[in-house]
Design goal:
The chain has 244 residues and is of the alpha/beta class. Helix content is 36%, strand content 18%. The protein contains nine helices and 13 strands. The strands form four sheets. A six-stranded parallel sheet has the order 7-6-3-8-9-10, covered by helices on one side. Strands 2-12-11 form a three-stranded antiparallel sheet. A two-stranded antiparallel sheet has the order 1-13. Helix 1 crosses helix 4 and helix 4 runs parallel beside helix 6.
């Protein structure tokens, strides 16, 4: 009898956890811009004479400036990178959608004035462009590609995210990510990590040992502090991946 292929079971019971702050990745976590990014890199690939398929194999979760440093160092400067990334939401905005559950979660956190931030490998122009086009709530704190000397999987971005929230280096912070590079960065920064199975295979995600794996942000809910007495952010994480 042939062995049945393993079917992932996202059936974990709801768990409630408290954190000093929440740090979100952007692309693949808040916004699903896959189709837009494919069109963007296809356009760039034609301009610089590189097969877009080759670029797309390693570009997700990385800063564009790091990608250009390998492909075409003459374009690895912030003026150029910010310009071309700023065009993406304007030219391909119709090709993006918000990740299920993202809109409600961000709005709930902001309404409660909870400490949260976006930590992205994209430029400020790309991140704010997507927030505008998608009509999503803007964070009070933001860490973008230009703010760090080294991109993910280096932990610098998430360490800076803690600082932007006014938290100590050892504060109990949760990172919400979709890419292996981002998960690795979050773990290296001493954070708990909720991984979303939105853009990568479960094998790639599990290899980085996140603390929880869920399909999307419909499985992460903010528990509002009705009494106003909680000092931390309460999140309910449900329908997590159960290991076979």
């Amino acid at each position: 009898m042939p062995l049945r292929e393993y079917e992932p079971a996202f059936t974990g019971q709801p768990q409630t956890h408290s954190f000093a702050g929440v740090l979100f990745d952007m692309d693949g976590t808040i916004v699903d811009s896959t189709d837009a990014i494919v069109k963007h890199w296809t356009k760039i690939g034609k301009e610089i004479g590189v097969d877009p398929a080759v670029i797309l194999q390693t570009s997700h979760g990385r800063r564009s400036i790091d990608t250009f440093q390998v492909l075409d160092p003459s374009k690895a400067n912030w003026e150029y990178v910010s310009h071309v990334e700023g065009l993406v939401p304007k030219e391909f905005g119709r090709d993006a959608v918000d990740v299920p559950g993202a809109r409600d979660l961000l709005s709930a956190l902001e309404e409660s004035q909870a400490p949260w931030a976006i930590v992205t490998s994209g430029t400020r122009a790309l991140c704010t462009g997507w927030l505008e086009v998608m009509g999503l709530v803007h964070p009070r704190h933001l860490v973008v590609a230009e703010d760090v000397s080294v991109g993910k999987p280096d932990p610098e971005c998430y360490q800076l995210g803690k600082q932007r929230l006014g938290l100590s280096a050892n504060a109990d912070v949760v990172v919400i990510e979709d890419s292996p590079a981002g998960i690795k960065a979050g773990k290296a920064a001493g954070c708990k990590v909720i991984a979303l199975a939105t853009t990568h295979s479960l094998a790639q995600i599990c290899e980085q040992s996140p603390d929880w794996i869920v399909r999307d942000l419909r499985s992460v809910n903010h528990i509002k502090d009705e009494a106003g007495t909680m000092e931390k952010v309460m999140l309910e994480v449900s329908n997590t991946l159960i290991a076979p």
